[in-house]
Amino acid sequence: MQMTVAALIAMLAISAKAGPVSLQGARFTATHEATPTKPSVALAFDDDEATSWAGDGHDLTELASNIVVTFPQPVTVGSMQVVTEVLKERLRLSHLEVYAPVGDDWALLGAVRDIVQTHFTVALKPARVKQLRLRVRDNARPDHCWPRIVEIAFFEPEPGAVLEPLSPAPVEDESAGERLFLAAATGNLPAAPTTTFDPNKGYLGYARDCLDTLIASGTDTLETVTSPMFISILATADHKHPGCELPPIHGQRQGDRASFGGNLQHDMMLLEAARRISDLTGEPRYAQAADDYLRFFLNNCTTSVTGLWPWGEHAHWDFIKEAPGHVTHEYLGAAPLDFWERAWAMNPAAVLREADGLINHVVNLETFDYNRHADISAPLPTPRPADMTFLDFPRHGGFYIQVWAFAYSKTGEQRYLDWCEKMMDHHSAMRHPKSGLMPSTSSSPANAGITTQLSLAITMLESVPLFGDTPTGKRCHQLAGEYLAALARLPHRPAEGKVCTRTPVSGPGEDIEKCLSTPAFDADYGGEFLCMDGLLWVQAYRVSGNTRFLDIARGIAGFYAREPRAPEQTNTRAKVFGSLVELMLDMAELDGGDQWLPAAESYARQGVELLYHNGIFRGATGLWYHESELWPSTFVHSLVRLAAVLDGKGTQVPTNYFHR
């Protein structure tokens, strides 16, 4: 019978005559968490075997995970009891080191290696400490990922133990990246300088600075194969890649980052902004840089065995390996049709590889059940294995329809129409018969996916012209209209700035207040940043002509325009400022009124002041680096569009509706 933690503690205390160290008031931080928005590290110290700390999916042999325990007062430690677990037949902790701080260095108190049991003791050099660092170095998984600690308890030294002075020493194989993760976890990263907006430079000047820096210093130079692609992460101080992984900010998932490469979906609107800068300035080098980037990607990065491109929410192009970094294909948003036209002109075969590769998202070729994730490196067999799991967010199905519709418009091949028809069949089967709403995914049928249905409908309506005069095009138009009509019937209260963002799939029922949201400024992973929804409601109006959607957008925009400054909080993402500027410009264009353009300028100036440093935009406020995954591209595009509006010479910069 497995002994409980409480029993183990009691046994150890009796045998060693050493009392437990109290954890009351202690603070726990971890450099890596499986779910960054729901930290679990305190669960490893709660005397409950039903809960645990879960590390994330990176290789511990390349980058150790660290847990830092800070006691409210100094304590004396002599040993540590640890409980891990066997999960999916693998022991989740096999190598652990324990350190105490000595000045700016660390002293090793104890370590265990090659552990084969779930319950073990770590003997520690007796010491008086206020902080401990637990360095998780390995487990028994072949990929050395996903460690787990069920419970940890500390004990005092045995009676009579002598406390000797601690000797600081370098931590074995500690990397610069690990030191950064520790500094972030303990709040010791340096402050990032801000700037004062210079009206003489203007919005276009700041956007040009950022592009100039990326063109001069931010292209792929990590290894012997260089390219004109932009690297995702660049220090603002010296315009160099930091050479190591960086700790994620709150709500950012490590697996979504292009730590040693670039991601075309992150940069798509940056490339569009570069082309528009050339239009506004008459300097062709910006458009040339954008074309060089895209051409290199199409010619060198799109020949995977599936045909799927290494881009999107997880995959990217790794500049060191010259191969996909991560192999999970998932769209982040909808590429503008102009992008597909440009890509087709450069390399039509690459575009068709992506279009054909999307069939690897379909896990049932009869029902067209699909998974938003697909493996770039392994084509699905035909026929498909039975009972494959899937998550079929409607928005992703819209992305596939659009790419297939584009491929049909260029080739006339019937299979693309067939795939679009089957995808529309799949979505139609998901709809509630009375409300017309779809669940966020068919595996969670109770709750409607309002934003994902809005995204699907907009993408379908944008795609209609690609079908030409075909029954598929007519059906696409009709169904998208029905999807939007169901969303228009929801009890939005735009005059109050309240938008229906959640409801049972059968409809709101009587408890309408629980279905409504008001705007905010958070844009963490999985969050609902209503400004971006506001842009989708504008686009719904543009593609449908239904003024109900413009009313909803006006209600959202009105909230942001009344006091046009984002709260100055830690790590506000660049896309927050960019999306706010874009929404205000949309409303100025479509709605008139004196409030929208000043609000756009206010958010643009605030974004410049909080994000700009040394010729480039950081990814979020408070950071010391630029990072594409935090969407400085969205902010740069918004500045170029604002500059074009204020220029008054008629240069058009279309809205950025990528985020959906």
Describe this structure in words.
This protein is an alpha+beta fold. Among the domains are: 5-185, Sandwich (Jelly Rolls); 199-300 and 568-660, no CATH class. Helices cover 36% and strands 17% of the residues. A hairpin with a 2-residue loop joins strand 6 and strand 7 (105-112). Helix 13 (547-562) packs across helix 14 (574-591). The longest helix has 18 residues, at 264-281. It is globular and about 90 Å long.
Brief digest:
With 660 residues, this protein is of the alpha+beta class. 36% of the residues lie in helices and 17% in strands.
So what's the overall shape? globular
What's the story with the biggest beta sheet?
Answer: 6 strands, antiparallel
Radius of gyration: 27 Å
Q: Averaging pLDDT over every residue, what do you get? A: 94
Distance between the termini: 52 Å
Question: Count of DSSP E strands?
Answer: 25
Q: Report the total helices.
A: 16
Question: Runs with pLDDT <50, length 5+?
Answer: 10-16
The fraction of residues in strands falls at 15-25%
Structural class comes to alpha+beta
